[in-house]
Structure formats: structure tokens, C-alpha cells
Design a protein that fits this description.
Blueprint lengths: L38 H4 L5 E2 L2 H9 L3 E2 L8 E2 L2 E3 L2 E8 L11 H8 L2 E4 L5 E3 L4 E11 L4 E7 L1 H5 L2 E7 L7 E2 L4 E10 L4 E3 L6 E7 L14 H10 L14 E4 L10 E6 L6 E2 L12 E5 L5 E4 L4 E10 L5 E7 L7 E3 L4 E2 L13 E9 L4 E4 L3 E9 L29
Parallel strand pairs: 13-17
Antiparallel strand pairs: 1-14, 2-8, 3-4, 4-14, 5-6, 5-8, 7-13, 8-12, 9-11, 9-14, 10-12, 15-26, 16-18, 16-20, 19-25, 20-24, 21-23, 21-26, 22-24
């Protein structure tokens, strides 16, 4: 979902216009502290998700590599990944499997090559594209990674997944991985324009200690969520609904004076440039969905909706969360994209939960009736290895703090 260096290394980023190249910072090309130690010892510390100051340490130790990094890539609990200069249009999605690199698979498929240099290129709806990212990894065995679309990417219905060499799963990078990273990109509702440096997905790093299993994914159990809620409220109100995570229910009673409950993507629109913020009129891309008297919404098959949770949320400073779609047996629809929620998301000046979860929803093969208050997703919480040195809402790229029902940042 959404980030500064110490004052001695802080870089002021200025732009002459929205397409000017960002000011880049070279972080830690030489850092003599601990250079005689093994890589795993240099990057040792508490287990959990790495905050942005620890992600910078990955750069210092050359476990996370690129020619340069833009400071705004560093989110409280993740790093924005940037597209490289070439996109490959392929016939179908794929995984390389245990014995191939992504490049080897691409050579066999003989895809169409598209340049993303300069002003970039348009990616067509329903097309499948594989794009090498500017960042690559040389991780110690104690640090693994997971990826997700950025919040703005999900709200534009851009299906985006991370691919690593010799992988049998999307969006996961095992500890000890050494190699490039690729994004699979498939726009679903809108044609989009991207270029070298565009950011569609983000990556989180998870550290385990020697006693943990391979990935050390340890989401909080329901009783731990109740304890945490008693200490610092996770949702507004006294009631905490948990079921293998914090339950999210859909708001269909209406929000604000217009009693909006959501937006539905139009089928025939102009191109959206993913790097243009606040540049598009809502009415040219979305149909407004208002509350009905029966507080129901019929999801039409293969239509894309932006909805909101009833709950107003707050992610504590020492935790992060991830949206988990509900099981298919609970309905013929899905919350289309899982998403990252950063530490500090939803915190108001009074310390109360204050941001709804925005839901990207698509029905399956048949129409499906949603009822007001119906369960549509869950939040899984995970501990941070340390509190981030900048929380969501305190950094310059927090676009969705205090949101009610909000489209992506591209719409005015």
C-alpha cells in the first residue's frame, strides 16, 4: 500500500515537471562497518519484516542492488520496484520452474520486444507482459522476500506479479536468492502507459533467525490480535471480529452525502499514464455506484469494482498487515488484489483508527449479490523486526491516509 535518510544523507527531490527524471541517490556504495563479517552476520538482527532503515542496509551490503536508488522508493515496510527498459509481450503467463531462468523461458517463447525508454509504451488490455526490473537481489539465506502490487496498481485493475529465476510460485523470493527480478503485468480494465522507472509493485523483506523455518511467516493468531487491539485499537469501535485474521466487511449503506458505495470501471476509455498523478477525470473512467434501499449490490460477471470496508483501520507502528482474500467457497467473487498495509496506516491525530480498507472486487462466472456488512476479506498482521524510522502518513508518498472511498492517485 505507501516514504528519509539521515540528515547527512538526505536528498531533496525536485522535478521541473511530472516527467522529469527523479533525483537519484547512491546509497552506501562503500560501508566499512563489518565488511570482514559474512553477509548473514552483517544483516543479522531481530526476526520479522524489515523496516525501511533495514532495507537501506540491504543496499549498503549489496544484497539489494541497482545502479542507483530514488529515496522515495523506501516505504515504511517495503521498497517500490521500478520497471526496466524492455517489455516482452508473451502469449500467456508462465513460471520458469526449478530448472530455468526467466530469460531462458523468454527465449523459448520468442515474445514481441517493446521498448520502454523515453516516453514509454502503451500496454493493451488483457495483454500479458514480462518486464525485467531495475532492482536485483543477492540475499543471505536468512532473508526472504514477498511482493504485491502497489495500492495504486490494484485500484487501476493492473494484474502485477513478481517472478524470480527458477521459481515455482509468484511473488515469493526464497532466502539466498541471487539474481534478477521480473514483473508480469496484465492490464485488465484500462490500457496503460508505462516507461522505464514506472512503479507497479513493491517488495517486503522478512528476516528469520536460525531457529525459524525457511520463510518464517508468522502472522498473529486471533488471540494475539485481541491482545494487540486491547493495547492499541486496530479498528474503530469496541468490537473486533477475527477469523484467522481481522475480518473486513463491505460497506453498502452509503458513504457521505452522495451515499456512494463504490465505483465500477467503464469498458471503453482512454489510456491511463501510470506516472501522471491527479490528471484524469473520474467520470471518464468510472461509473458511480450509490447505495440501494435494500443495501445490496449485484456484482456483474467480469466487472471490476472499487468498494470500501465498514471498518476504519489502524496499523500499529510495530506491525504491518496484508489483505488476504476470502476462500472461494464463501462466494462467487474475490477481493481481486491482496495488498500491503504499512505501519502507521489509518492513525489519526487523536490516535484513533481512521482509514477504511479499499477493496478491489471482481465477480466470477455468475452474478453475485453482496449484502451490507458481508465478510469480503481478512487482514493478516505480522510483527516488524524494528519500528520504521518513518511511518505511513509521515512520509511524502502516503497517498491514502484517512481514506474513505478513494480511487487511485491518478484521478482528480
Amino acid at each position: 500500500m505507501m516514504p528519509a535518510l539521515s540528515s547527512s544523507r538526505q536528498t531533496v527531490i525536485s522535478r521541473m515537471n511530472m516527467f522529469a527524471p527523479p533525483t537519484l541517490v547512491s546509497i552506501g556504495a562503500q560501508d566499512t562497518a563489518g565488511t570482514s563479517l559474512p553477509r548473514s552476520a552483517q544483516l543479522a538482527g531481530p526476526s520479522g519484516l524489515l523496516p525501511r532503515q533495514e532495507v537501506r542496509k540491504l543496499v549498503h551490503r549489496h544484497a539489494l542492488r541497482a545502479s542507483e536508488f530514488d529515496e522515495s522508493q523506501f516505504q515504511p515496510a517495503s521498497l517500490d520496484l521500478r520497471l526496466g527498459s524492455k517489455a516482452y509481450r508473451v502469449r500467456a503467463s508462465f513460471l520458469p520452474g526449478r530448472h530455468k531462468t526467466v530469460q531462458q523461458q523468454l527465449e523459448e517463447l520468442q515474445p514481441e520486444l517493446i521498448s520502454l525508454e523515453g516516453d514509454g509504451a502503451v500496454l493493451e488490455k488483457r495483454g500479458v507482459y514480462v518486464i525485467e526490473l531495475q532492482e536485483n537481489l543477492q540475499l543471505p539465506k536468512t532473508i526472504a522476500a514477498i511482493a504485491n502490487p502497489k495500492s495504486s496498481t490494484g485500484r487501476l485493475d493492473i494484474f502485477t506479479r513478481l517472478i524470480a529465476d527458477r521459481s515455482e510460485v509468484f511473488d515469493h523470493v526464497p532466502g539466498g536468492y541471487d539474481g534478477p527480478l521480473y514483473a508480469e503485468v496484465s492490464p485488465r480494465s484500462f490500457r496503460i502507459k508505462v516507461r522505464r522507472g514506472s512503479r507497479l509493485n513493491q517488495i517486503r523483506f522478512r528476516r528469520r533467525n536460525s531457529m525459524h523455518e525457511k520463510h518464517a511467516y508468522r502472522p498473529l493468531a486471533d488471540h494475539q490480535l485481541r491482545t494487540l487491539h486491547a493495547k492499541t485499537r486496530l479498528v474503530d469501535g469496541d468490537e473486533l471480529n477475527v477469523r484467522h485474521g481481522l475480518v473486513l466487511r463491505v460497506e453498502l449503506g452509503g458513504i457521505g452525502p452522495e451515499r456512494l458505495v463504490g465505483y465500477r470501471a467503464q469498458r471503453h476509455t482512454d489510456v491511463i499514464d501510470v506516472d501522471r498523478v491527479g490528471s484524469y477525470a473520474v467520470e471518464n473512467f468510472w461509473e458511480l455506484v450509490r447505495a440501494r434501499s435494500d443495501k445490496r449490490l449485484i456484482l456483474d460477471p467480469d466487472e471490476f469494482y472499487i468498494l470500501a470496508s465498514k471498518e476504519k483501520l489502524h496499523i500499529p507502528r510495530d506491525h504491518a498487515a496484508e489483505m488476504i482474500p476470502i476462500a472461494p467457497e464463501m462466494g462467487e467473487f474475490r477481493v481481486h488484489y491482496a495488498g500491503f498495509f504499512d505501519p502507521g496506516f489509518g492513525l489519526t491525530e487523536h490516535g484513533h483508527p481512521g482509514s477504511r480498507g479499499v477493496l478491489e472486487v471482481r465477480s466470477h462466472e455468475v452474478p453475485f449479490i453482496l449484502e451490507d456488512g458481508q465478510m469480503v476479506g481478512r487482514l493478516a498482521f505480522e510483527r516488524m523486526a524494528e519500528v520504521p524510522d518513518g511511518l505511513y502518513g509521515q512520509i511524502g508518498t502516503s497517498n491514502y491516509q484517512g481514506q474513505e472511498l478513494k480511487l487511485s492517485k491518478h484521478f482528480a
